[in-house]
Design a protein that fits this description.
By secondary structure, this protein is an alpha/beta fold. It has 16 helices and 12 strands. The N terminus is likely disordered.
């Protein structure tokens, strides 16, 4: 249960009215039309289905710079420094923002919340100085840590990889970073821990021992798992696939690639996957394909909710706005039994020409309502059961006769040959009726 209402932590958002549910007919741009957090759908509150989180990096550390120019965003709480004092001050802004949206979780990398110091020891001290304030704010607001992670991709030391770097000292540096962030994540009650291998890949085989790098990355994951057990960290480990960008060939290209890696190295029971909408697009898949690969293999963990632009072909991290895609995605999540410890983290950023503080709210409101509307649609579809019934019927030949023998594992090539020789030809395929199903899906929207 969330703590009672309290005074605002800062004054930076005083011009923004309280954001609450007003229903689909509201014309208030600062109102939620579809997300009513405590409304029960399919036996569970909407907030517990969706488990929304605000990301620290894009929302509070992003400057909207690009390769053609500097940042453009107006963030009045920033003093221009990268000091610990500024980092502590920023935590209050973060929690005030999340509280005003009425959301329950946040996510961060170590370098989002605290700056590096002059030494590794000082860097660790900086992180803990801010973590203690985060703990106080969590207690005061009821906001929780969905997941933590270590940034092992931004600094030049990671230019040739993190756990896959040819430099053993970089491997050791990463070990320190993950150890500290596992300690911090436990301290803050983090429900998951994410690994995103932004530099875990290569650009040319002319300088790369791919097999050795994969071995090193697997060894690193085993070390992290061993340490989590040692300290009693109960959070779920997650890997977030991405096809390319920044490296040409990422070792975590897509869900199927990650599953193959995990199974090779005996890590398949340790990790689930954190799927990002836009990363699926970069891999040449759609978002729901990646989710279904995870569901079918029992590794659907969490989602980074954003969208890309198919015209651009790179990671634009825009706020989600396609409620139909959200509905189809949530059908898969519902079939998987829900997110468990995972949730929907808005790994999204306002556009470079959306300068103002209020734009931060508009982006999140749009994303929240897209997913909430999608949940309402998905619940109707699942309750109605027509699409599930169609799929079940389409595979009905495996519920009897030779199909049942095949699925029981009792068939072999010789027995199947005898069956089809006797029958003479396969039964004709019935229509797959894609157009009918697309029309049916739209009728719920």
């Amino acid at each position: 249960m969330k703590p009672a209402a309290r005074e605002s932590l800062t004054t930076y958002f005083n011009a923004i009215p309280k954001i609450g549910y007003e229903g689909p007919d509201s014309d208030n741009p600062f109102a939620l039309r579809w997300y009513n957090p405590d409304e029960v759908i399919m036996g569970k509150k909407m907030r517990d289905h969706l488990r929304f989180a605000v990301c620290y990096w894009h929302t509070f550390r992003g400057q909207a710079l690009d390769i053609f120019g500097p940042g453009t965003l107006n963030r009045p709480w920033e003093d221009g420094s990268n000091s610990v004092d500024m980092a502590v001050k920023r935590t209050e802004v973060v929690f005030d923002f999340i509280s005003r949206l009425g959301l329950d979780f946040y996510c961060f990398h170590d370098r989002d919340v605290a700056p590096e110091g002059g030494s590794v020891a000082q860097t660790n001290e900086n992180l803990w100085a801010v973590a203690k304030r985060l703990k106080e704010l969590q207690k005061a607001t009821g906001i929780k840590l969905l997941w933590g992670t270590a940034n092992m991709f931004s600094h030049p030391r990671f230019s040739q990889g993190a756990s896959t770097s040819p430099n053993a000292d970089v491997f050791a540096y990463c070990a320190n970073s993950v150890k500290e962030m596992l300690d911090v994540s436990k301290f803050l009650g983090g429900e998951n821990y994410v690994f995103w291998g932004g530099r875990e890949g290569y650009n040319t085989l002319l300088n790369t021992d791919m097999g050795r790098e994969s071995d090193h990355m697997a060894a690193f994951f085993h070390m992290a798992n061993d340490y989590a057990k040692k300290i009693g960290f109960k959070g779920q480990f997650l890997i977030e696939p991405k096809a390319f960008e920044p490296t040409k060939h990422q070792y975590d290209f897509d869900s199927a690639t990650v599953l193959g890696f995990l199974r090779k190295y005996g890590l398949e029971k340790v990790f689930k996957l954190n799927i990002e909408q836009n990363h699926a697009l970069l891999a040449g898949h759609d978002f729901c394909h990646e989710l279904e690969v995870c569901r079918a293999n029992g590794v659907l963990g969490s989602v980074d909710a954003n969208r890309g632009d198919a015209m651009n072909g790179w990671d634009t991290d825009q706020f989600p706005n396609d409620f139909k895609e959200c509905a189809q995605a949530l059908l898969i999540v519902l079939k998987a039994g829900g997110f468990g410890t995972g949730g929907l983290n808005f790994d999204a950023k306002v556009r470079r020409d959306s300068y103002d503080v209020e734009d931060m709210f508009h982006g999140h409101i749009c994303g929240i309502d897209a997913w909430a509307r999608g949940l309402r649609i998905a619940a109707k579809i699942k309750a109605d059961g027509k699409i599930d019934a169609f799929i079940k019927d389409r595979y009905s030949s495996y519920g009897k006769g030779i199909g049942k023998v095949i699925e029981s594992g009792k068939a072999d090539l010789e027995s199947l040959q005898q069956y089809i020789l006797k029958k003479g030809e396969a039964q004709p395929n019935p229509s797959a009726r894609q157009e009918f199903l697309e029309n049916l899906f739209n009728s719920y929207c």
